[in-house]
Specification:
By secondary structure, the protein is an alpha/beta fold. The chain has helices spanning about 10-40, 45-70, 125-130, and strands at about 5, 70-75, 90-95, 100-110, 120, 140-145, 145-155. α1 (about 10-40) packs antiparallel against α2 (about 45-70). The chain is elongated and about 70 Å long.
Length: about 160
Amino acid sequence: MNKTPLTKKGAQSLKDELDHLKNVKRPKITEAIADARAHGDLKENAEYHAAREEQGLVEARVRDIESKLGNAQVIDVSTLNANGKVVFGCTVELENIDTEELITYTIVGADEADIKNNLISYASPFAKALIGKEEGDVAEVRAPAGITEYEITEVRYE
């Protein structure tokens, strides 16, 4: 089976979430179910049904995270010697050649991608246009709105 790349930070974030689900959420849900059972008839007990539904969601998320961590190839980008090239896990500062706008992205695994936090998937067209390039290179990014050119102004391995 192919391993899915995951940054060290992304793996730690998943481990933290898993720990929270197992050690905080599970006990609270178990307590809520016990309290709801104490109220009697379970057929019409909304608290019981809500707690059971939440329990199902939490258990599904636990299985999902365990699966992701089990299939992950954790990459510590700070130990890579990529000689200034854009690679998985690096942080890239770009300048839009047309607008001179600066933007910074970190190239991460698909499960970590979050555009609001400037985390882009290595499999995205944007990241694919950057990977393998170096500081000073120009990358052409094809998007539905057309081609945009970005100059790579800095590559960091954090």
